[in-house]
Amino acid sequence: MRHFRWSEENExxxxxxxxxxxxxxxxxxxxxxxxxxxxxxxxxxxxxxTLVAHAEEHFSxxxxxxxxxxxxxxxxxxxxxxxxRRRLQVFAPLVESGESEAAELLLDFLEGWLQDHISVTDRMxxxxxxxxxxxxxxxxxxxxxxxxxxxxxxx
Length: 155
Fold this sequence. Notes:
Blueprint: H1 15-36, H2 41-68, H3 74-96, H4 100-136, H5 140-143
């Protein structure tokens, strides 16, 4: 069985991002349990919709954060988000239709992608954010929800 359990090894040391990652692990685990338990299609769809929505919200948050601190690897990081977005777009309808092979492929992808992305890509971004905050005496959490700097976008 796949491992969708949060542990301290997954921390990037930005409280909001870590909380969002914990939620992603929990939601992915709930989806996996629904699929493994052969839950009714409506339950699988509900878990899948929750995963897709939370992933999009999280990716948008990280992308805003990277832009707000002028992260030089923003394009590379966003491309990884786009890869996950495309996989979810392709596999979600197949999983919803009950195709078990598609469900297995999606869960395999999610397990590896979450671990790899968080342990390398998100940690690099988080280190940059912390250094930016130290240098500029600011907190991303305090800036979250404020208007973006001129020329920046949340998408």
